[in-house]
Amino acid sequence: MGRINVLDIDTVNKIAAGEVVERPASAVKELIENAIDAGADKITVEINNGGISYIRVTDNGCGIASADVEKAFLPHSTSKIKSIDDLTGLYTMGFRGEALASISAVSRVDIITKSKDENFGTAMSLEGGKVVSKTETGCPDGTTIIVKNLFYNTPARMNFLKRDSTEGAHIKDVAERMILGNPSVSFKFISSGREILFSSGTGSITEAFACVYKSELSKQMITVDYEKDGIRVHGLCSTPYAARPNRNMQYFFVNKRCVRSKTTVHAAEEAYKTMLMTGRYPILLLNIEIQPGRTDVNVHPSKLEIKFSDDSAVHSAVYWAVKNALFSSKKEKEIETPLEGNVRSTYTGKNILTDRKKESNAESFGEKTFDFFSEDMFSAMKKESVNPDDKDIVVFNSPDAETEQPFPDFMEAERNEEKSGENSAGYEKFKVIGQLFDTYILVEKGDSLLMIDQHAAHERINYEKLIGMNRAPSQVLMFPESLKLSPKEAVILSENEELLNRIGFETEPFGGEDYVIRKIPADISPSQSEGCIIDILNMIAENKDPETAYKKAMFSVACKSSVRANHKLDIKESAALVERVLEDDSIRTCPHGRPIVISLTKKFIEKEFKRIV
Ligand code: ADP
Ligand code: MG
Description:
By secondary structure, the protein is an alpha+beta fold. It contains 22 helices and 24 strands.
């Protein structure tokens, strides 16, 4: 007997379902897309057990006529196209006619739907894709689809599902994207009876953004609206200062469809070139409106990837849209033409500053940036071993503490010492001239004027101290801080508690994605703790290796515990910081790779004033 079987239609459908319905979130995505295609402006999504046992999507769209209800669940049945030619003019989310067939093949589905043209609605139930009942019913215009026991008849798929909370987090992610991409639709997302998200559907993209992210973050967003070669690009992009450690907060919608496209990511990031540190990514929410004929979304079963027939036109439109937005924004730091000639950053610390002979070679260091995370860099760093203080310090986080700068510990000890003069460490004497813009310390040293970035310098010093410890000292908060996380961040937190403890944080769940922060690293202020944890969770997400994640997390703590720019320092405090910078060979760049010291030589200054030629 032969061994080749032709699969029955049931099996074929179950296999096909796997392509479209990978997990509860993909079913939710398809159902919401159908509701949007039906013209709904009010959509409610309700789930239980992360969508595994129950998903309900209700819309106020056009509904399905009684005669069409069964057809909608047949494979390759769609009202959106008749032939392949229709794709060139297609603005709908769906067109493959697979979603309802696939979802119903692997679950129990109830549909209640009524089209405006009919007096009665239809209620129908399916099990494993087969209709088990169909009746007339009274109901409002629109459609409700309930999906129960997803994958009940495909145990292999069931086994691939993660915990309820993880699946629920993926669904929340889908709901957020839908809110961001459809500001004119009012969405409600309910999980286990709790309302998690609500958007009012006013049409304002800024409001939609604020529904999903904190309002402080919305303030950091710049409006984008631009058109070129028949391609409109509109939405929001962040100021360079609000950049994130990863691309999780980059959303691209092409004709309302949330897509992945290398072209658009590259174009938008190119517009930020030189404005961002390495490893920092802008927040982007960009809608690209383009004639459907100039795209091909059909390349991916869940229609996630997109191809453009004219990549360079799309690239150029996105690039200029973001570039213009960035430069029209007042928040933008003025970019000035750097002085030509001898101005350079001295990445090499003490040696260059003291050794006149080496200075002539210093030009070659000017353009060099360190990949700080490379192993070379780590091993080259001096590791100071400091014992963490085991005792927990209780901090009363008074309102004052919100604004208080952490006071650099080394400054205290050295306050009364005269720093201008020859010293035991053997480096050349220096004179602190003062502070420039409350941010840079100006120092006269030998034949040079040094400008020291106080934040970058202090950050590096703190980093060196922290990385030498295996477990950073922490402080107990008298009044716990609240911590609001995205679903993804909450999952990372639950899986990395020990790592966070090592860094000095202790958190406790407070329902859903809300937590309270009980302990924080000793040197940061309570008000900074939430931002710091979120930064760290994102770093962990990006770095599979826990040691690298730990080191990167320490940058974040060092940064938060350092004296900021725009903070007044008196001469003695400045001198103490300068001394640390000059005496310590390991202080070359801040942990992000930015220079700490820039020097102007006397010769350069005299040349500029034409005293010498
Ligand atoms: P597609 O969206 O690719 O057309 P689906 O399987 O998702 O395929 O849906 C099949 C058809 O069922 C759609 O073309 C549409 O006519 C109808 N339909 C599905 N969901 C809804 C809804 N919420 N409201 C109105 N019609 C719907
Ligand atoms: Mg569809």
